[in-house]
Amino acid sequence: MRKKDLEKKDLLKTVIEELNGGEPAKPKKKRAFWKVIQIPALAILTGLILGAILIAATSFTVYDAFKVGFFNGIGTAFAEVGKAYLGLLTGSLGNPVEIISALIYGDAQDVRNAINPILESLVQATPYIFAGLACALAFRAGLFNIGVEGQLFMGAAAATFVGYSLTGLPAIIHMPLAFLAGALGGALWGMVPGLLKATTGGNEVINCIMMNYIAYRVTTWLLTGPMTRPGTGGMPISPIIEKSAQIPQFFKTPIRFHLGFFIALAFAALVWWILFKTTWGLNLRMVGVNPRAAKYAGLNITQVTIIGMALSGALAGMAGGNEILAINRSMAIGLSAGYGFDSIALALLGNNHPVGVIFAALLFGVLKNGATKMMVVSGTPIDIVTILQAVILIFVAAPAIIRAIYRMRQPLKEETAAASFTLSGWGGGK
Amino acid sequence: MAPILQLKGITKRFPGVLANDHIDLTLNQGEILALLGENGAGKTTLMNILYGLYQPDEGEILVNEQKVIINSPTDAINTGIGMVHQHFMLIPVFTVTENVMLGSEPVKMGDFLDRPKTSARIHEISQQYKLEVNPNDYVKDLPVGVQQRVEIIKLLYREANILIFDEPTAVLTPQEADDLFSIMRSLVKQGKSIIFITHKLREVLDVADRIMVIRRGAVVGEADPKIADKNKLAEMMVGREVNLVVEKEFKEPGEVVLSVKDLVVANQFKQVMVDHVSFDVHAGQILGIAGVQGNGQTELVEAITGLDKSASGKILFKNEDITNCTPRKITEVGSAHVPEDRQADGLVLTFPVAENLVLCTYYKEPFAKGVVLQYDKILENSEKLISDFDIRTPSSLTPVGSLSGGNQQKVIIARELSRPIQLLVASQPTRGLDVGSIEYIHKRIVQKRDEGCAVLLVSPELDEVIELSDRIAVMYRGKIIAIVDAGNVTKETLGLLMAGIIPEKIEKEQGEKVVEITF
Questions:
Q1: Quick one: closest CA in B to A2, which residue?
Q2: pLDDT tens-digit profile of A166-218?
Q3: Would the CB atoms of B347 and A290 count as touching at under 8 Å?
């Protein structure tokens, strides 16, 4: 049949293909790539536009300008929005003028300071990468892990404990040990809802939420009781971890950029490899997409579900452990800024793909880091960024809106199925 | 006589697909028009347009020479068009009367339902069109054939004049189908008009007054059932010559490969679905299991393939006990399974063709080394199977869900038959497929049998079972009520068996010997 097709293909086409290097497969791949990222990309664009409208609409400067005249108002609105977004950009990615001049003068300290905003964005993105991977892996296995927050707390507690209680170990052993303790804490916490789902059919969404509550209280108890810092009189804070357990920061304070970022990237690569290159990953994905076919193919669904939740929990635990070992150096109650919940949205934005998760995490890191600067330079409230994030995610979750705005064609049935399985994961699906 | 219904130049486009291409159709009063076409030919789209579920991009609909616009099924009913769906739209725990009145309930004394009035009307209708039903029976207690009558009564109650039957015989026994055909004839005799959608050639020739063949969204021709023959129609449908008869030579059966002994399987509600069933399947032999859907075939197959647990009894594979083993174990001893529901069980639709082609073997050499998948080997395997089994797919990496039903089934057949197997369990291997794919899959199954593989074939399509099988077991209400030699059994006998009429009686009435009766 193939041969026949070749014969039928007209000469012109063949010539064009030859001219293009005889590789008709390549443009197809490019198109597939665009297909994957078009919705998130357009969602971000639309989110920024809506954010701009919001910034203008909440600025009194703009209203005052409108009192003077219509065009004055419009001009001021654009100026205000520009100022705010410029603040956001320089806050998160640095000021290009400063960076260039620092590079010209070549003073190492100046260079570091100039690029610190970028580095700080990466620092902010690190826990998002870990937590996002946790959610993405669970989604791929057909599980809705809303318990990342709790697993993160338990991972942090375990890493902290190993970090301060063991002394006299060399860093090459102590640091990985503390980090893995964090992973183990998260894994055990994540395994419980997995076990309940696999054996009793208990809905993992409900059980994860409950495990979150238990984790909050358990860590509070730990920090005020067994793990409290001596001499604080029961303040909810742990002792400072040993030097040997700390994940190193590369530069002097205030630059916090640390090795953990690269560990996160390494784990993203590892998750990608497991998901797409190994039989384990195929097992996870098969159970996630079609448990009946997985059973037909001979898989033990119970086992895969438990392993899936445990792996997801381990990644969540790393998010917590990494923050303690690299940044905080001791554990306090207000450890997480809602990483566990943001990560669900983040995994969705990243299409449950490790590479997508990295980019989504970077976006979140940039927005979070730039928000402060934005507030300082333009007086735009920090909360705009939260709204911006929310709007972007709504567009990603409801792609029909984006399709309507940009007049894109409806996707074929199987494409929808591939894209929407995240959302249908609610309630454990079928 | 003026036509009661006319479709003029109906065109419907979906992104990338021209589902209906300027279709003209005329239905005269009092005739049965058969709409024949393969799956995906556009029959259903056309009927959904007529029933108000889609709007045509071009063209118009005329009822009684009046142009109408149908925006919803309600509009359709109001213009006198009614549809008997393949899957009944009935509420099982309601009585016939309640089901019929639902949606247009007559009331008395304010807001009280007037059941007697409806019952009386149903009684009238069933007298007039010879549709025997008891208006006070609960729908759940009725056999499928009678449930279908309720569907028809629903339409007549709403005074539909044009009735559309969408693949109505899929769920019926041959006898029930014959009953339906006589009902259809009595309906047209009394002035109703019928559009009958099907891809079964025999039925078309039996019942239609006129045949219209659709292929790839366009009308390819009309035929007169009095002079048309099966091969000619199949050729029109598929667009090439089709061999409808499976060529199969006699083969001496070999050793027993699969032996089922006194098997009992219960469903999740603890109802016995497979009731003390015993049979053997020999190497080089096809044992067909005939029976109306829902008589325990699904549960039997699931127990044999390990997807479900059996309550008691034994399943032996070459004397090795595989009762209640895991599906993986059963696959590994050398059996293959073509599942009944290919999309739910047999394929992961979002996965590429290549991965679906190794769905049962991906964890073993050469497709995996340790835990690392060897994608070069997986793709190599896929390229080979795609060309060996003529799977029409843009590439190995295309998600299997975007292939047509026939090609999806070919993916399963390729995967299962390409392994070294001694037993093939094929459950409805051609369900919903077009004539061309059916022909191909039948050939492959017979080829496997000729290679010495034991085949257990389960199908509600009597023609398929008779043509392929060497022996036929008939299942009725969970029991195998007879195992007969496929060579000397008539369709009528099998039809009676499928309806649960016991073999001794047939033997007496028809003087025909039924072999190997097991209870």
A1: B387
A2: 988 898 999 999 999 999 999 999 999 999 998 888 889 999 999 999 999 99
A3: yes
pLDDT beyond 60 at A19: no
Question: Is A61 among the domain residues?
Answer: no
What number of C-beta contacts closer than 8 Å exist between A and B? 82
Between A1, A286, A298, which is nearest B327 by CB?
A298
Select from A292, A299, A417 the Cβ nearest to the Cβ of B350: A417
Query: Tens digit of pLDDT for each residue in A410-425?
Result: 654 444 444 444 443 3
- Is pTM, for the whole model, over 0.80? no
Which of B268, B302, B338, B350 has the most A C-beta neighbours within 10 Å, making it the best mutation to test the interface with A?
B350
Please, what sign has the CA dihedral across residues A25, A27, A29, A31? negative
Question: What domain range includes position A303?
Answer: 124-349
DSSP letters of A291-354?
HHHHHHTT--HHHHHHHHHHHHHHHHHHHHHHHIIIIISS-BTT--SSHHHHHHHHHHHTTT-H
Which residues of A are less than 8 Å from B339 in CB distance? Answer: 296
Q: What is the ipTM of this complex?
A: 0.76
Cα gap A125→A106, rounded to integer Å: 28
User: What are the tens digits of pLDDT across the range B301-341?
Assistant: 999 999 999 999 999 999 899 999 999 999 999 999 999 88
Q: Is the minimum CB–CB distance between A298 and chain B shorter than 8 Å?
A: yes
State whether residue A193 is helix, strand or coil: helix
Is A308 a member of any domain? yes
The pLDDT value recorded for residue A192 is 95
- Which of A293, A409, A413 is facing B348, going by the closest CB pair? A293
Joined together, the tokens standing for residue B424 give: 């093939």
The whole-number pLDDT of residue A416 equals 43
Structural domain tally of chain A?
Answer: 1
Nearest to B331 among A280, A292, A298 (CB): A298
Give me the mean pLDDT over the A228-248 stretch.
Answer: 88
- Residue B146, Cα to own-chain centre: how many angstroms? 18
Residues A158, A163, A167, A171, Cα dihedral to 10°: 130
| Domains defined along chain B, listed by start | 3-238 (3.40.50.300), 253-324+456-519 (3.40.50.300)
Distance from CA of B440 to the nearest CA of A (A): 15
Nearest chain B alpha carbon to A32: B398
Binary contact (A290, B344; C-beta < 8 A): yes
Q: For residue A403, what pLDDT is reported?
A: 81
Mean pLDDT of A103-121: 85
Q: Is residue A377 part of a domain?
A: no
DSSP A121-167: HHHHHHHHHHHHHHHHHHHHTT---TTHHHHHHHHHHHHHHHHHH--
Nearest-neighbour CA in chain A from B57: distance (Å): 17
Helices (H), B389-512: 405-417, 435-450, 462-468, 491-498, 503-510
Q: Which residue has the tokens 């600025």?
A: A59
